[in-house]
Amino acid sequence: MLARPGRARYHPRMALEVELATYRRLWPSLVQRHLGKQVLIQGDRLVGAYPDYGSALREATRLFGTNPFLIREVRDPEPVETL
């Protein structure tokens, strides 16, 4: 089990479920404010928006190390994901 600072313990398989749900919940406002940028999400919060993936990744690794985080480009329309 992994632990996030200030959060209950969670199972590793759930690592990005919270971050993906946060992205979906924030998507309408992200499109208005950060379209085309890379957003960094950790847990249930938006950490920041960055002009490119490299900038977002540097900040994510500085802040979170190997703990889970999500970096995703804000697009409209959002691409359909298939498994």
Write a brief structural summary:
With 83 residues, the chain is an alpha+beta fold. Helices cover 36% and strands 18% of the residues.
Explain how this protein is built:
It contains two helices and three strands. The protein is of the alpha+beta class and 83 residues long. It has one domain (12-73). The longest helix has 18 residues, at 17-34. The protein is globular, with a radius of gyration of 13 Å.
Features:
83 residues, alpha+beta, three-stranded antiparallel sheet, 36% helix, 18% strand, globular
Number of domains: 1
Q: Unreliable stretches, pLDDT < 50, 5 or more residues? A: none
The succession of helices and strands, N to C, reads HEEHE
What's the total helix number?
Answer: 2
Strand content: 15-25%
Helicity range = 25-40%
Largest sheet: 3 strands, antiparallel
Shape: globular
Structural class: alpha+beta
What Rg, in angstroms, do the CA atoms define?
A: 13 Å
Distance between the termini: 26 Å
Mean pLDDT: 87
Lateral strand order in the biggest sheet:
2-1-3
Number-wise, the strands total: 3
Q: What is this structure's SSE topology?
A:
Elements (H helix, E strand, L loop, with lengths): L16 H18 L3 E5 L2 E6 L2 H12 L5 E4 L10
Antiparallel strand pairs: 1-2, 1-3
